[in-house]
Amino acid sequence: MKKLNIAMIGHRFMGKAHSNAYLNAGKFFNLKAEPIRKIVCGRSEDLITFAEKWGWENYCHDYNETVIRDDIDIVDICTPNSSHAEIAIKAANAKKAILCEKPLAMNVAEAEDMVAAAKENDVPTMVCFNYRRVPAIALLKKMIDEGKLGRVYHIRAQYLQDWIMDPKFPRVWRLVKALAGSGVHGDLNAHIIDLARYLIGEISGVSGLSETFIKERPIENSANGETGIVDVDDATLFLAKFENGAIGTFEATRFAGGNRNGLQLEINGSKGSFKFNLENMNELFYLNLEDEEQGFKRILVTEANHPYVGNYWPPGHIIGYEHTFVNVVADFVNGVAEGTPLMPDFNDALKTQKILDAVIKSAEENCWMSA
Ligand code: SOE
Predict the structure, then answer these.
(1) How many helices (H) and strands (E) in the chain?
(2) pLDDT, tens digit, 9 for 90 and up, residues 16-66
(3) Beta strand 97-101 with 74-77: parallel, antiparallel or unpaired?
(4) pLDDT value of residue 181
(5) Which residues contact 53 (CB under 8 A, 6 or more apart)?
(6) Measuring from atom 12 of ligand 1, which residue has the nearest CA?
(7) Which domains does the chain show, CATH number per domain?
(8) What is the pairing mode between strands 34-41 and 3-9?
(9) Whose CA is nearest to atom 2 of ligand 1?
């Protein structure tokens, strides 16, 4: 079987999720090429332990050398947002296929440069908006495409976390604008914007509202208790209008106490409604307005004919967060091996980036922004 050599840049939370996916995708899916964990790149000392644990053949501290190596086919970007553009453009110029963590970039200008580099070099790209490949979301998409929603009226999308509510929680990279671009907005609204676009269509205008509740935090690993300014949003909410006439509300916050990783969607249309909550990710709730009895029906998305999930266990045997990355990697590797389209690619993720930037501008200028 054809082999695809991977260079993965970054080895924290996402590096672990991607490594696990490369390790397991071929065990559950019929892959058209074998992903080889060739080299992992990172700055810290624990990189060596990471490489050994996850079976990377080699490791290195300088991605500049790594992404241009002749024996590398795929560059996988799992670093903080501030380095996505630089690594991706270098990889594209070296003719590598690219898998990039979300959000695509720090802002639209960077994202446009990434799209241009990928286009110029004609390289396949994909952005790891992994929730598109939750089986319940993929089933929801299929049911919408089959016409079960009808005319779309509403989407209510929330992504709620609570991990930085303690004011003593340090100012990690996600709370520094120069590294993250924005706060919870680029981190979590990016996911629900991507899902809304995927499921119901393009957004035509937005009105945003942002707040930073804790404006100063301890500097990470500082011995003398130094603090630093938090220059990103803790919560960003916005209203949206869609090209198809639907309207939506979006909320992303890291201050929703009790919500550990709650991504919730409700979509209402002329023929039915759907509800989804990531904390119960194997379930999809569906209301058919023609049902005499009314009420939502619970679909346990574990049937062999449901998307992705038939590759794992018998019906009723649920899957988890890590499987969403396995599904991403299976589609990515097959797309690269066969030269078939990958979604969401850089161009598609640029559209999400445009909505992210429009919301920021709207919140700053206190106005409605066309997107
Ligand atoms: C942290 O907020 C985080 O890990 C996000 O960065 C991920 O994209 C999301 O899937 C879970 O939460």
Answers:
(1) 11, 17
(2) 999 999 999 999 999 999 999 999 999 998 999 999 999 999 999 999 999
(3) parallel
(4) 98
(5) none
(6) 261
(7) 3-130 (3.40.50.720), 135-280+282-319+349-370 (3.30.360.10)
(8) parallel
(9) 187
